[in-house]
Amino acid sequence: TGTGYTEIFTMPEYGYIRVSHTDQNDARQRVEIEALGIPTKNIFTDKQSGKDFHRPAYEAMCRRLRKGDIVFVKSIDRFGRNYEEIQEQWRILTRKKDVDIVVLDMPLLDTRRDKNLLGTFIADLVLQVLSFVAQSEREAIRQRQAEGIAAAKARGVRFGRAKIPLPDNFHDVAQNLQNRRLTLSQAAEMAGMSRTTLRRRMQEAGY
């Protein structure tokens, strides 16, 4: 009052970005979020699976959110890939925290618009369908991974850490242990292994 102009207040805006793995590029999401003019300090990025919402950046963003704030996310599968948890988190943000969510790839999922009963009903339907699709895609990805691993194993591909090569004296030690010329403790010490490891490696070698 008395200043001759009206000051306009805008609600804080946040961007949420998620990729499934640390080696995945988040550039496409980041470009769209930054184009909205959201400050870098308000953009939160997680690099982990969307199977649940126990993600450090997401949880940090939620702690900062206040009534009337707006969260932008590129697509619902970047928000999450678990049908029930997407529904629950959406409810927490929009109803408990009274925050608006904007899904850039789906204009119907913009809680700033059509806040009447019909608009809410349509948004809820779209959210349920897209959440179902997101989880279905996650399960399909896991199935393809399992099938790929099984096929690779059938071809003789081995997974996991490479085994440490056996020491040069391994077979002599194993034979002496079998012939009771060494105790298990003595054999393990000579082979430079624990007793459990020695027993396992001997079993693998056919002793």
Helix content bin: 40-55%
Q: Largest sheet at a glance?
A: 4 strands, parallel
**Helix-strand category:** alpha/beta
Which runs of at least 5 residues are low in confidence (pLDDT < 50)? Answer: none
**Number of helical regions:** 8
Name the average pLDDT. Answer: 82
**Overall spatial form:** elongated
- What is the C-alpha radius of gyration, as a whole number of Å? 28 Å
The H-and-E topology, N to C, reads as: EHEHEHHEHHHH
List the topology elements.
Elements: E1 13-19, H1 27-34, E2 43-47, H2 56-64, E3 70-73, H3 76-79, H4 83-96, E4 100-103, H5 117-154, H6 170-178, H7 184-191, H8 195-204
Parallel strand pairs: 1-2, 1-3, 3-4
Structure commentary:
It is a single chain. With about 210 residues, this protein is α/β, with parallel strands linked by helices. Helices cover about 50% and strands about 10% of the residues. The protein has helices at about 25-35, 55-65, 75-80, 85-95, 115-155, 170-180, 185-190, 195-205; strands at about 15-20, 45, 70-75, 100-105. It has a four-stranded parallel beta sheet, sandwiched between helices. Strand 1 (about 15-20), helix 1 (about 25-35) and strand 2 form a beta-alpha-beta unit. Helix 4 (about 85-95) runs antiparallel to helix 5 and helix 6 packs antiparallel against helix 7 (about 185-190). The longest helix has about 40 residues, at about 115-155. The protein starts with 12 loop residues before the first strand and ends with a helix.
